[in-house]
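Hi L.,

As promised, Trehalose 6-phosphate synthase:
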Amino acid sequence: MKNIMSVGEDGGDGRLVIVSNRVALPDEHGSLPPGGMAIALNAALKQRGGLWMGWSGKVRAEKKQVSPTMQEANGITYALADLSDKDLDEYYYGFANRVLWPVFHCRVDLAEYNDARKSGYYRVNRLFAESLMPLHREDDVIWVQDYHLIPLGKELRERGCRNRIGFFLHIPWPPADILATVPVCEELLEALSFYDLVGFQTDDDLNNFAECLSRRNLGRLMKDRSCLVKGREFRCGVFPIGIDTAKFESLAKLATRDGDLQEVYKKTAGCDVAIGVDRLDYSKGIDQRIVAFRHFLDRNSHRVRKTLLLQITPKSRGEIPAYLALQKHIAELVGSVNGELGTIDWVPVHYTNRSHGPLELAGLYRLARVGLVTPLRDGMNLVAKEYVAAQDPSNPGVLVLSQFAGAAGKLEGAVLVNPYDPEAVAASTEKAFRMSPEERKDRWSAMKDSLIGHDVYRWCDGFLAKLEAADLPA
């Protein structure tokens, strides 16, 4: 379903302004980075004309403050702001990813809060606000993306911005007791009240947010999903993000004719394949999954030498010690399993840190009889949806999905598991491999219908329609 609305369809002609930590800038051939969100937001921006602002990816001299670099591509204006090494360390690698990311994923034990990181986080949000103010127009609609920029709405309001401003959180919102571990939790909650619309992935996330407001005596969520915090009224909503289902389905069909993938198919012939695809992150449950796969082989001796796990795990955030430690731990775990169970002509876990393009991933998803998507906590998890979209309708694979992924509430045909219980995951993996063709088709069909009805374009349309309907701030 591809129907990107014009936010000004009710008579306005304002642009759409997207603000995010990074900008999905097309390459020299005009191709966009992989990912449904980048495609959908670019489509919305292109349709009505718009501006996308974010970090350029470049590092500037510490004291050199310059205006964003402006670029034009495909009818879209990109405003690219440089950050200093200090900004990156305190804002991105510091508060955003050593405080907010672990806490929002319920890993309080990994949070490393300090005042310098907090200061850097707010400083960069002020920088983004100051950079955007001269660029926005009176009738623009502004859409802020994700946890890096929670204070941006407040910073814009304090500089006189009266536009409609929306915020969408792509990661989970934590329970009240977990959020309370962040020393500035009340500031974060109050900052969200400066938006006109705050969007979450799931009802659980919205309910957690409402509980945080109530427990801090800041406000409460009404039946119509409006909130009042210190005299400021705003609305909340649930907008589960999807993928470009039709495009991913066509990629999977195309991949079956790709020469390199044909070689992979030949090399895995005679083996049943399970696949896991995750950025290297402690929230993804990769080490627990490998342990569960070891249990699966131990309890199903007939699967040894006939089944393998393909685990694709691009590295990320190597500047953060917790990620370096995880990288080492997983590599050692894979080595242990392969060393103990592998033979000269077969290894149980094929583990790679190389990134793969959309075509290659689609072909590998289609090859795998089982998709193992077992995060410990995830806002949505689009890998689950990509796996379903890539399947052959005449012989689909089975999705084994963590109950703690946001996608679990939308993909009712998945086999749901508790990733903290490796033996249960092992049993569900065997169930998935043994499932009859009729049951596999029934489960897949239900999930495919959900993907079509809730694709990334529906997500974009739904949020923007609700934001456009919001009252302008007084």
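The chain has a mean pLDDT of 93.

Thanks again for sending the construct details.

K.
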